């Protein structure tokens, strides 16, 4: 199977490159920019793509790759910082531009061969850079330019090296996908041989190879990711897999029962259900810091899995439904991106973990996981459910997590979801949930003064959870949700609507 490696120089769009390549039917993975060339060679890629990045190639401490990557014998495409790096390492010249170029530009095509075959002249491209290539390296032809960027596309077909200053991976570059397709298919000569089916076969074989006759515990969270992970591991090793679903007392109403049912009746996989709500609540008592909550919850999960592993006897592997956004937003495991929050199944893992991890979905985005779930025969309704964070309602209860506050949030959340479904909004949204704030406000109910808690409604649309827009809900729907929550949930006298996008906010409040 063809494989394209994307070297990550820190751009917020790196993951989009890998994803667009996979959409074109070629398997793609991201590696940090400083991965040793010997390691890259081992991966046996058929092409390399160098991502964008926020730094300048000529500044001290800039992320540089070895120029040996250009001698691997595979075609290379540099994007934004990637093309500047190419120029910098191969004898061209990169300089600061007199003004940063951020936004739309029109691409003038100077030679419609290789990379720009079939691309419309003056088409819209997306630019985001402070430096530019002033002089391309020897043997490179300049084949595209924009009003502000004289060297916008460079090509050296003889060396099979290509570069673009614009971002073909973002939707604002109208024919970006066609540019990537030209690179992959015409220039690198690849075939679109990646599909969910082939992904399943590859992952199942990989799991078999790494686990052998070992036993695996799979931690279920109630969501699609851990379910799909379990199904893949089950395909690979059958009865040597034990699924454990921990009720941590921080689940939504009906979530525990729903998942147990899906596993037992429809998927015929054995699941051990464990009620550990007391343990989680005890550990969370008095804890306010979001990161501490996440770490405590991660730790408690692991302890329970370890105890189960002990009972089963020598289960040394732990399968987790970690997906790409968890990886990129937690510890900077692959590449130089910043830590946003510790997703409990990535950054929240305790040090000295005794398990070896099995994480077959690490490179995938949510919608890819959903496509995979469909391929594996998971119920459509289950697949379409909104993502739910591993630390559960704990990160939606700001301030201290207590039984009483969980009960309040659960009720408010149930009403919200009921109304969202009634208004036929559920499937148009990425997530819809309620958040409980750590403040009280004054109200008046039946001539009595109240001093109660505040519920926030968060309804967002997103493609992959990396960015999100708040959803403009009709006011009559908002009004019904608010009236019902205040009337039906004891202890809440105010409902507010969150109108922030991600970025600058995140989707969850903690
Ligand atoms: P944020 O809040 O970072 O969330 O914008 C992005 C997406 O990830 C989900 N999320 C998590 N999922 N473990 C998970 O499995 C976690 O710790 C976690 N934290 C956030 C969140 O619900 C959203 O869809």
CATH class membership of the largest domain: Alpha Beta
Oligomeric organization of the protein chains = single chain
Number of helices: 14
The rounded distance between the terminal residues' Cα atoms is 40 Å
Structural class: alpha/beta
Strand order of the largest sheet: 2-1-3-4-9-8-7-5-6
Strand composition percent: 15-25%
Cα gyration radius (Å): 25 Å
Instruction: Name the CATH superfamily assignment of the largest domain.
Output: HUPs
CATH fold-type name of the largest domain: Rossmann fold
Number of domains: 3
CATH architecture of the largest domain: 3-Layer(aba) Sandwich
Mean of the pLDDT scores?
92
Compute the number of strand runs: 18
The outline comes out as globular
Describe the structure in your own words.
By secondary structure, this protein is α/β, with parallel strands linked by helices. It has three domains: 3-187, Class I glutamine amidotransferase (GATase) domain (Rossmann fold), CATH 3.40.50.880; 196-383, Rossmann fold, CATH 3.40.50; 397-497, GMP Synthetase, Chain A, domain 3. The chain is 33% helix and 25% strand. It contains 14 helices and 18 strands. It has helices spanning 14-23, 37-43, 81-89, 176-187, 196-211, 224-237, 255-267, 277-284, 290-312, 324-329, 366-375, 380-383, 403-422, 475-488; strands at 3-8, 27-32, 47-50, 76-79, 93-109, 123-135, 141-145, 153-156, 161-164, 215-220, 241-247, 271-275, 315-319, 356-358, 431-445, 448-461, 469-470, 492-497. The chain has a nine-stranded mixed sheet with strand order 2-1-3-4-9-8-7-5-6, with helices on both faces. Helix 6 (224-237) links the parallel strand 10 and strand 11 (241-247). Helix 6 crosses helix 11. The longest helix has 23 residues, at 290-312. The two termini are 40 Å apart. The model is unreliable at 331-335 (pLDDT under 50). It binds xanthosine-5'-monophosphate (XMP). Residues 325-326, 329, 340-341, 343-345, 387, 389-391, 431, 465, 502, 506-508 line the site of xanthosine-5'-monophosphate (XMP).
């Amino acid at each position: 199977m063809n494989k394209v490696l994307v070297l990550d120089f820190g751009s917020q769009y790196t993951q989009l490159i890998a994803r667009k390549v996979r959409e074109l039917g070629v398997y793609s993975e991201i590696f940090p920019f400083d991965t040793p060339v010997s390691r890259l060679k081992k991966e046996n890629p058929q092409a390399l793509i160098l991502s964008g990045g926020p730094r300048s190639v000529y500044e001290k401490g800039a992320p540089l790759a070895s120029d040996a990557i250009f001698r691997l014998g595979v075609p290379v495409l540099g994007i934004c910082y990637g093309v500047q790096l190419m120029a910098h390492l191969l004898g061209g010249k990169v300089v600061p531009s007199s003004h940063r170029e951020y936004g739309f530009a029109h691409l003038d095509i100077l030679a419609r061969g290789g990379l720009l075959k079939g691309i419309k002249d003056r088409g819209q491209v997306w630019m985001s850079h402070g430096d530019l290539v002033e002089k391309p390296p020897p043997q490179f032809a300049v084949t595209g330019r924009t009003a502000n960027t004289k060297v916008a596309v460079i090509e050296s077909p003889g060396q099979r090296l290509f570069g673009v200053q614009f971002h073909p991976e973002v939707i604002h570059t109208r024919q970006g996908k066609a540019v990537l397709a030209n690179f992959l298919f015409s220039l690198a000569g690849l075939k679109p041989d990646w599909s969910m089916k082939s992904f399943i076969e590859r992952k199942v074989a990989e799991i078999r190879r790494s686990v052998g006759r070992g036993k695996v515990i799979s931690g279920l969270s109630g969501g699609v990711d851990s379910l799909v992970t379990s199904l893949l591991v089950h395909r690979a090793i059958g009865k040597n897999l034990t699924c454990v679903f921990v009720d941590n007392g921080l689940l939504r109403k009906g979530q525990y029962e729903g998942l147990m049912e899906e596993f037992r009746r429809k998927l015929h996989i054995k699941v051990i259900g464990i009620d550990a709500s007391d343990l989680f609540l005890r550990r969370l008592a008095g804890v306010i810091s979001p990161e501490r909550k996440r770490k405590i919850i991660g730790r408690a999960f692991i302890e329970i899995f370890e105890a189960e592993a002990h009972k089963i006897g020598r289960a040394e592997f732990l399968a987790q439904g970690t997906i790409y956004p968890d990886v990129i937003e937690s510890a900077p495991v692959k590449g130089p991106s910043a830590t946003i929050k510790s997703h409990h199944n990535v950054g929240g893992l305790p040090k000295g973990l005794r398990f070896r991890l099995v994480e077959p979905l690490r490179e995938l985005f949510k919608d890819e996981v959903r496509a995979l779930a469909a391929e594996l025969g998971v119920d459509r309704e289950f697949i379409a459910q909104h993502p739910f964070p591993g630390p559960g309602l704990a990160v939606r209860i700001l301030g201290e997590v207590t039984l009483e506050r969980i009960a309040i949030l659960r009720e408010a959340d149930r009403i919200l979801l009921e109304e969202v479904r009634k208004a036929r909004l559920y499937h148009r949204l990425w997530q819809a949930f309620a958040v409980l704030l750590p403040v009280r406000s004054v109200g008046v109910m039946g001539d009595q003064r109240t001093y109660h808690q505040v519920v926030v409604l968060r309804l967002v649309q997103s493609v992959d959870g990396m960015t999100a827009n708040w959803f403009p809900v009709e006011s009559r729907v908002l009004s019904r949700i608010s009236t019902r929550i205040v009337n039906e949930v004891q202890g809440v006298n105010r409902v507010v609507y969150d109108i922030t996008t991600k970025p600058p906010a995140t989707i969850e409040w903690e």
